[in-house]
Amino acid sequence: MAPQGSRAPLEFGGPLGAAALMLLLPATMVHLLLVARSGPARLLGPPPYLPGLEALWSPRALLLWLTWLGLQAALYLLPARKVAEGQELKDKSTLRYPINGFQALVLTALLVSLGVSAGLPVGELAEMLLPLAFVATLTAFIFSLLLYLKALLAPTSALAPGGNSGNPIYDFFLGRELNPRIRSFDFKYFCELRPGLIGWVLINLALLMKEAELRGSPSLAMWLVNGFQLLYVGDALWQEEAVLTTMDITHDGFGFMLAFGDLAWVPFTYSLQAQFLLYHPQPLGLPMASVICLINAFGFYIFRGANAQKNTFRKNPSDPRVADLETIPTATGRQLLVSGWWGMVRHPNYLGDLIMALAWSLPCGMSHLLPYFYFLYFTVLLVHREGRDERQCLQKYGLAWREYCRRVPYRIVPYIY
Ligand SMILES: NC(=O)C1=CN([C@@H]2O[C@H](COP(=O)(O)OP(=O)(O)OC[C@H]3O[C@@H](n4cnc5c(N)ncnc54)[C@H](OP(=O)(O)O)[C@@H]3O)[C@@H](O)[C@H]2O)C=CC1
Ligand SMILES: CC(C)CCC[C@@H](C)[C@H]1CC=C2C3=C(CC[C@@]21C)[C@@]1(C)CC[C@H](O)C(C)(C)[C@@H]1CC3
């Protein structure tokens, strides 16, 4: 049984680390937004200027942001093609989740297309990124505060394994309640996949349209970045049910880390390559573009194959697609895959994700480090996440996990790490 509440070991450097991250993450996001549009685009230099409140605050941006959240919430509430059951909770109950994320993406695309044909200046979004990121951060702070207060009324069985240390800063950052809901509206599940992810591809599209406006047509590099990231987001929403087995949904509470990550960090920093390309056009020939497409396809193949194999196996170990794979039994009654993708390294899905991250930066050329920020940040995030998952699995599976580590010694990259 995993240690709970104040007995759970503190992560992210404890309260001090949590406080530092709450300041550093929004500051980094603003830095990236400013640097992407500056001439030298130096990731490691100082920001070109320090924005005043007038550059950050815009009632128009607030209205736009709230409309966006409202639209995505309305799409979430539409009838779903399927309702899925989440993992079993501490009190042995399960929650139900609507599977209509892809439908939300398609309906948003239809609405945006209608808007564009009616003359809606979507490209203008490109100039509003700073105030939009600011209001998204503000909403994440307010939202996390409300979630923290809501958790005070929640029963102990509804609390997350971490995030209940008793230190308010740490708990505010990590999140106290595992699945905060009002009726059937699940806030964490909604935020993880809808406003931020769909917002990310909409921002990319706005940057592409702005480029077309400025230079006559979008560049090949911009097409590639848009195409790759649309594939990633479309896939996440198509495979929406798979998110129910991720650490974020099954283990982490919903606090500032995920609220800010989902609502602000994902749309405004994950679109960094497209932002960079708008202000720093890069020549890209067809042969190089083809190589980059192959790298992305290779990464996607590993990412999708590994995630699909684990999800199929977790849903039904006798499914003919996974029934022949070798497994290790554990004391919990669950098994661990030890052949197929999960016999190659202990986190093949991270490997595929990292290869794709590299493919998203390559269209931006080699002249700047800035477009490689995502790849660098993502490597740190996944190495840290892998460590967290490893500790959780050791607690869950004990000796069986040790045996798995002996049989599959590499964590993410075969023969390297
Ligand atoms: N773009 C982004 O910013 C981010 C993307 N991601 C992506 O999200 C996806 C999900 O990541 P995440 O939730 O971290 O981790 P995983 O999907 O890898 O899930 C880890 C869990 O899988 C189960 N597991 C581990 N090894 C085995 C095995 N050998 N056989 C069967 N089950 C096993 C364990 O849970 P159990 O046994 O309880 O089922 C473990 O806790 C990944 O593809 C990752 O790349 C993640 C973070 C950020
Ligand atoms: C702000 C901090 C630096 C940390 C925030 C981390 C979050 C941005 C990420 C934590 C796990 C995520 C996942 C995805 C997006 C980023 C966050 C929220 C994911 C939805 C991306 C699409 C994938 O296909 C996925 C597997 C569904 C991802 C699940 C985890």
From TrEMBL:
InterPro entries: ERG24_DHCR-like, Sterol_reductase_CS. Its EC number is 1.3.1.70. It holds the Pfam family ERG4_ERG24. It comes from the Eukaryota. It is found in: Endomembrane system; Endoplasmic reticulum membrane; Microsome membrane. It catalyses: 5alpha-cholest-8,14-dien-3beta-ol + NADPH + H(+) = 5alpha-cholest-8-en-3beta-ol + NADP(+); 4,4-dimethyl-8,14-cholestadien-3beta-ol + NADPH + H(+) = 4,4-dimethyl-5alpha-cholest-8-en-3beta-ol + NADP(+); 4,4-dimethyl-5alpha-cholesta-8,24-dien-3beta-ol + NADP(+) = 4,4-dimethyl-5alpha-cholesta-8,14,24-trien-3beta-ol + NADPH + H(+). PROSITE patterns: STEROL_REDUCT_1, STEROL_REDUCT_2. GO terms for molecular function: Delta14-sterol reductase activity. Keywords: Cholesterol biosynthesis, Cholesterol metabolism, Endoplasmic reticulum, Lipid biosynthesis, Lipid metabolism, Membrane, Oxidoreductase, Steroid biosynthesis, Steroid metabolism, Sterol biosynthesis, Sterol metabolism, Transmembrane, Transmembrane helix. The chain crosses the membrane at residues 12-36, 56-78, 99-122, 128-149, 254-272, 284-303, 354-383. GO terms for biological process: cholesterol biosynthetic process. The keyword Repressor does not apply. It is a multi-pass membrane protein. One of its GO terms (cellular component) is endoplasmic reticulum membrane. The keyword Transmembrane applies. Pathway: Steroid biosynthesis; cholesterol biosynthesis. Coiled coil: none annotated. Belongs to the ERG4/ERG24 family. Catalyzes the reduction of the C14-unsaturated bond of lanosterol, as part of the metabolic pathway leading to cholesterol biosynthesis. This is Delta(14)-sterol reductase TM7SF2.
